[in-house]
Amino acid sequence: MTATRRVFWHLTCIALLVVLLYPVAWLVLSSFKPAEEILSSLALLPERFFLGNYTEVFAGQAGVTVWRFLANSLIVSTGAVLGTVVSCALAAYAFSWLRFRMRTPLFAFMIATIMLPIHVLLIPQYTIFHQLDLIDTFWPLILPKMLATDAFFVFLMVQFMRGLPTELGDAARIDGCGPIRTFGHIVLPLAKPALVTAAIFTFIWSWNDFFSQLIYLNTPENYTLPLALRLFIDQTSETSYGAMMAMSVLSLLPIALFFFAFQRLLVQGVATTGLNG
Predict the structure, then answer these.
(1) Contact 105, 261 (CB under 8 A)
(2) pTM: predicted TM-score of the whole model, two decimal places
C-alpha cells in the first residue's frame, strides 16, 4: 500500500470516528450548558461551564435520589448478567457436550426463537407476572434471564464450547468425573471469553433497556436510570433539558467503565466464537 493510500485511509477513519463520537461529545458538553443555551445555541462548546445541571440531578426527582436510581439499575443489570451467564452456560453445555434424544431439533427450535419479537411475548409474560403479583418489582426483569431465554447467548456459547478439545472430556470421564464436574472444572474455565462476552452484552442491554422497565416498573422508588430520565420531562411546565443531559452522562459512565475493563476478553470471545464452525 502506497503512502498516499495509507494517508487517505487514515483520514477516512478519523473522519468516521469524529462523526461517531460527535453525539457523545455534544451530550457531555451540553450537560454543562444552561437549558436555554442548549435550545438556542448550535455551538459545541458551552459559553460558560454551568454545574447547576448536576446539582439538580443529585438533588433527586420525585423525592428519590439519583443513588436510588443507580442502585436499581445495578440490581437489575447484575441480576440479568448472573442469570444469563449461568443459565445460558448450562444450556450451551448440554447442547454441545452432552448426548440426549431430540438434541438437534430442540437446538433448532431454540435458535428459531431469536426471530420472535419481544412484542409477541409481552402480553403473555405480563399476564403471568401479574397473576404472580410481581408487577412493580425487579423479578420480571431478572427471572426470565435465569431460564436461558436469550437464545443468542446460548448459540454463542455453543459455538465456543464445540471448539474445545473433546479429549479433555474423555480424560475427565476416565478420571471419574461426571457431567457436572466436567462442566465445572474443564468446560467453564475454558469458556471464560464467551461468558465474559455474554456478560458484557447483557449488562449493556439491561442497563439501557427502557421498554421492559417501563412496562413492569410503576413507582419512582423502583425506577432505573433510563426511566428516571422521564422525570425531567414535564408536559405541563418547562422541561429540564440540562439536568436530563447530566443524567444521561451519569448513566453512560458505568457502561463505559464496564466495557473498558473487559474489552480485551470481549474481543477475544467474539473472535474465537466467530471462527468456530
Answers:
(1) no
(2) 0.85
